[in-house]
């Protein structure tokens, strides 16, 4: 077991189908950057999470995106999440800045609060739906080619 990497398997139901999510949470620690590159290759979706009360965590997102672009498949679904949105008095990163960064990279954005259960489920379902839609499109394109 790698100390500091939180691994979970979560099953959700989406459009009547059970979908298994494997979740690797490195908490953005630099020491896991080389380890995580191996997991990017098989990933269909990646959530990039920063802490709205921590400017440095937001600034690091660009480094993580660069790392993903270098190591993950070109069509991996990405989503940007600003976590701890309930801590309004400690906020260092505005919602607008999160939205701007997401637009810059062409990815979806949400603010969440794991502590207050704000948008966490929605984020997982949104990413899972986007992955499922992409897979269905690939399958239907594949069938057209083989006919």
Automatic annotation (TrEMBL):
Under the heading Gene3D superfamilies, the entry gives: P-loop containing nucleotide triphosphate hydrolases
- InterPro entries, sorted: P-loop_NTPase, Small_GTP-bd, Small_GTPase, Small_GTPase_Rab
Write out the annotated subcellular location.
Cell membrane; Cytoplasmic vesicle, Secretory vesicle membrane
Q: Which UniProt keywords apply?
A: Cell membrane, Cytoplasmic vesicle, GTP-binding, Lipoprotein, Membrane, Nucleotide-binding, Prenylation, Protein transport, Transport
The family database entries (SUPFAM superfamilies) matched by this protein are listed as: P-loop containing nucleoside triphosphate hydrolases (SSF52540)
Where does the UniProt annotation place the signal sequence? none
Q: Name one GO molecular function term.
A: GTP binding
Asked whether the UniProt record includes Hydrolase among its keywords, one would answer no
> How does the protein's chain sit in the membrane according to the entry?
Lipid-anchor
Question: Would you tell me the protein name for this molecule?
Answer: Ras-related protein SEC4
Q: Which organism is it from?
A: Apis cerana cerana (Oriental honeybee)
Q: What is the lineage of its organism?
A: Eukaryota, Metazoa, Ecdysozoa, Arthropoda, Hexapoda
């Amino acid at each position: 077991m790698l100390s500091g990497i939180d691994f979970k398997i979560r099953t959700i139901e989406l459009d009547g189908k059970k979908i298994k999510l494997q979740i690797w949470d490195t908490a953005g620690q630099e020491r896991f950057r080389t380890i995580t590159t191996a997991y990017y290759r098989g990933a269909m979706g990646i959530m990039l999470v920063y802490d709205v009360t921590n400017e440095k965590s937001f600034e690091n997102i660009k480094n993580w995106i660069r790392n993903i672009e270098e190591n993950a498949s070109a069509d991996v679904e990405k989503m940007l999440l600003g976590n701890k949105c309930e801590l309004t008095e400690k906020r260092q990163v505005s919602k607008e800045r999160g939205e701007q960064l997401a637009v810059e990279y062409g990815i979806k954005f949400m603010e969440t609060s794991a502590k207050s259960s704000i948008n966490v489920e929605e984020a997982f379902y949104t990413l899972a739906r986007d992955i499922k839609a992409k897979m269905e499109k690939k399958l239907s394109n594949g069938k057209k080619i083989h006919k």
